[in-house]
Amino acid sequence: MTVTMTTIIKRWLCHLLLGFVLTLPYNQLLVAGTGHNHGGGHGHDQPDHEEHDHSDEPALVYTHYTQQTELFAEFPPLVVNEPSTFIAHFTRMDNFEPLVSGVLNVHLKQRGKTVARFRVKAPARKGIFLPAVTAKATGDYQLVLDVRDGDLHAIHDLGQITVFPNKEAITLSQEEADGEISYLKEQQWENPFAIRQVQRQGLRSSVPGFATVDPPGDAYAVVRASTDGYFAAQRIVNAGEQITQDRTLGFILPRLGEGADIGNLVVAQERARSRFELNKADVERLQGLFKQGAIPEKRLQQAKQALQVARVELETARARIQRQSGESGAVGIALRAPITGELVNVAVRPGAFVRSGNELFTLASPEKRWLNIQVPEKFGHHIRRASGAWLLFEDKPVVLDTHRDAKLIYVAQQVEKKSRTVSLAIEYPTSIGPSLLGARFATQVYIGEPQSQLAIPASAVIDDGGRPVVYVQTGGETFARRAVTLGIRDGDWVAVKSGLDTEEWVVSDGAYYVKLASTGDDSIGHGHAH
């Protein structure tokens, strides 16, 4: 079926249904651009056109892709000495945003040489260029659109096109794009949207498992209470802090004996202070005698040891009074960090009573984690071939294998009796995966080598009444719904057993909006008249 201006106008009428009124007749749009031939180097003012009905005139529609841009162009066939204004939509392929600046050249070539060139120096509005092309001679030409914007340079070779002597001579065989859904460029640019080409990918088989994020076995430590007592700290430390090895995290103050009260503690402190002062004075006196040679060195050392014992007794007595009266102190059994790492858990606060062996602090390396995976017994015989895993983290597939600095730590060769599972562990950097200790995830464990299969991004598939469906872009603004049969999934990609062909383009982001467009839902955003 030949594409006519009626088809294009129908697309524009879709905007009326979205709440927009077309304020310009089509002939005014056709003269909105300027061009020039290759040799003249000057733009031409567009002649006035009488308003008349173009709806039965044929039209040419092209959708063409390069690595940098997608071109969707609509224009009337070329007739000698009559301007044909191209409505050229340019979309960046890296982010699927409209091209908002740049220069467009339209070339008519014969035998590889440009015989006429028509230029516009900026888009008429975001994404849309309106070059006017006026051919001076009939014949067959190669049509090339060349767009530049900074580092971007894309060449769209649309193949051969004919310049006719008059409108009556126009004969076209171009068929309309196959697809019943119209989703305009302006809507694509306003909503989440991306397309990917169907292609063959090396996909790996996997088996299901359930995983827990654990600290690395070689960079993990638990600080426990060494005795019963009360916890005290000069400064409260919190989870998330970076701790250096041997840093003091707090103190354990041994609990008081039975029947102890504040009065007894004060008496005990005064006795300890008295012994300390007496021993201190004794050491000072003996030091003088030792210098005079009146006593042996052993006598002085014994006095110093007695002074040290008296000092500890006094400090302990003071700590007991501080604890009983609610004061904080830094005297007691010091708790020190055994490794350098991140404080991932704090299970105690100042003043809390702890039992010997209680876990007080947990430290782990902030750079890596272990993913401990349990695989059901029925898949256990596959695990010896494990090479990695993937999981959904924050709604995105995360692949953990040697290509991403992850490594297999161990694979069990025995079924756990209680859970009836087989376990394995993968170490990975926290920069690529979950870091929250204890978090649990459904996981797929790779068990085979990659096999070449037809594949699409998993994000392209939506559930439509219980069936997997994708939307294929058959033209710049035309889409077709396809039911597909899926195979294995490997991270971002899923195998397609039927429903698609190689090199077709599927909507990989925003497929749900295309589905809404097929129902006429106005929540997808408004388009704009061309």
Q: Care to describe what's here?
A:
It is built from 6 helices and 36 strands. The protein is α+β, with helices and mostly antiparallel strands and 530 residues long. The protein folds into 4 domains: 5-176, Sandwich (Immunoglobulin-like); 196-204 and 452-524, conserved putative lor/sdh protein from methanococcus maripaludis s2 fold (Beta Barrel), CATH 2.40.420.20; 206-217 and 365-448, Beta Barrel (Elongation Factor Tu (Ef-tu), domain 3); 226-357, no CATH class. Strand 25 and strand 26 (396-401) form a beta hairpin. The longest helix is centred in the middle third of the chain and has 31 residues, at 262-292. It is elongated and about 135 Å long. Mean pLDDT is 84; it is low at 10-54.
Q: Nutshell version of this structure?
A:
This protein has 530 residues and is of the alpha+beta class. The chain has 6 helices and 36 strands. It folds into 4 domains: 5-176, Immunoglobulins (Immunoglobulin-like), CATH 2.60.40; 196-204 and 452-524, Beta Barrel (conserved putative lor/sdh protein from methanococcus maripaludis s2 fold); 206-217 and 365-448, Efflux pump adaptor protein, beta barrel domain (Elongation Factor Tu (Ef-tu), domain 3, Beta Barrel); 226-357, no CATH class.
Main traits of this protein?
4 domains, Elongation Factor Tu (Ef-tu), domain 3, conserved putative lor/sdh protein from methanococcus maripaludis s2 fold, 6 helices, elongated, 6-stranded antiparallel sheet, 530 residues, 7-stranded antiparallel sheet, 17% helix, alpha+beta
Question: Layout of helices and strands, plus pairs?
Answer:
Elements: H1 5-17, H2 26-30, E1 60-65, E2 69-75, E3 78-79, E4 84-85, E5 87-92, E6 103-110, E7 113-120, E8 128-129, E9 132-133, E10 139-149, E11 152-164, E12 181-182, H3 185-190, E13 194-197, E14 199-203, E15 206-214, E16 220-224, E17 229-232, E18 242-243, E19 248-254, H4 262-292, H5 297-324, E20 333-336, E21 341-346, E22 353-354, E23 359-364, E24 368-376, E25 388-393, E26 396-401, E27 407-411, E28 421-429, E29 440-446, E30 451-457, E31 462-464, E32 467-475, E33 478-483, E34 485-490, E35 493-498, E36 505-509, H6 511-519
